[in-house]
Amino acid sequence: MERVPQWSHEETLELLKIRAEMDKSFMETKRNKVLWETVSMRMRLLAFPRTAEQCKSKWKNLLTRFKGSEAMEGEVGRQFPFHEEMQRIFSERMMMRLDNHEGKGKEVVENESSDDDDHDHDHEEYYDQENENKKEEEEKKKKKKKRKKRRRKNGDDEVVEVLKEILRRQREMEERWMKELEEREEERRVWEEDWKRTMEELLVERMEMERRWREREEERKARDEAMADRRHSLLTAILTKLSEKL
User: Fold this and answer.
1) Which of 30, 107, 127, 179 has its Cβ near the most Cβ atoms within 10 Å?
2) pTM above 0.70, yes or no
3) CATH number at residue 75
4) Do 16 and 26 contact (CB within 8 A), yes or no?
5) 107: region left, alpha or beta (phi > 0 left; psi from -120 to 50 alpha)
6) Residue 228 within a domain
7) Is residue 193 part of a domain?
8) Would residue 233 count as lying in a domain?
9) How many domains in the chain?
10) pLDDT per residue as tens digits for the range 18-54
11) Are 122 and 66 in contact (CB under 8 A)?
């Protein structure tokens, strides 16, 4: 059995390029043997002597590897060297199917050979499932966002209630402070009035004491003057009698 030459990177890229250009024909044609012969002929024109069977077998191998890479996560799944090219083919195919659904109201059936059709159909189902999974994830994210929004709203409501309670307590404290301030002001006013009244009473009492002291002082002066007058009269009388006797 003749050993099939290994495919080079450049040769594989050309195969994928040709297969991408003819993908619509593969999807619309029931028998694709002629299509693979066309692929082989175009490869030969590019100086890559590959038979139709070799091209078909390589395509199946690439499909299998791509499907395996899609099942892996992160950069590990991107290690398949032709991942982007294969993904581009199937992305365009999915867009084409969507356009056909919208324009004709029915699906376009891909009709390649039985083996090739199984691989493509499986991969399209995989893409459909992946889209469904993405939709489910988006729905979960939306629900999660809604729950977060509700929790945030509930949290905001709780914050508002707490702020209202703080404001209510602050108003109560301010009212108590104002009441205490008014009470203290009233006490101060009463104390000042008592103090003024006491000072006025003390002033009146002091003025009364001064008045009585002046009266007593005047009475004392009057008595002293009267006594002085009596003494003067007495001395005058004594001196007069002595003068008469002499």
Assistant:
1) 127
2) no
3) 1.10.10.60
4) no
5) beta
6) no
7) no
8) no
9) 1
10) 999 999 999 888 788 999 999 999 999 999 999 999 9
11) no
